[in-house]
Amino acid sequence: xxxxxxxxxxxxxxxxxxxxxxxxxxxxxxxxxxxxxxxxxxxxxxxxxxxxxxxxxxxxxxxxxxxxxxxxxxxxxxxxxxxxxxxxxxxxxxxxxxxxxxxxxxxxxxxxxxxxxxxxxxxxxxxxxxxxxxxxxxxxxxxxxxx
Length: 147
Description:
The chain is an alpha+beta fold.
């Protein structure tokens, strides 16, 4: 997986791209670091060209403020491999944290595979209430820009 700068947008959709699945951890707390919690979210995006991207966002919070953020992306995943690849990556993260700390991660999944309309996908993401989004698209969403 490749890393993204802290200031860059973590999830960027081009016209025709759609969310496939989103996996979000419950807040992960460690006895050794009181006041800190980590949330990990995986966005699986079906790209317009037929491949998939898996974007991992790992954020550390202290008193509801993000104090650390790590974004990694794996692009070009074939449709036949996407579910296996997601399972492998999520399993790797879960195992590393559990082995190092004894904390078992609880995951929640929003399956958007059957939802083709991006506006409906965003509405469902807002209703899911795990991502901190409003569930509405801005009026200029997916409008091509002129450079």
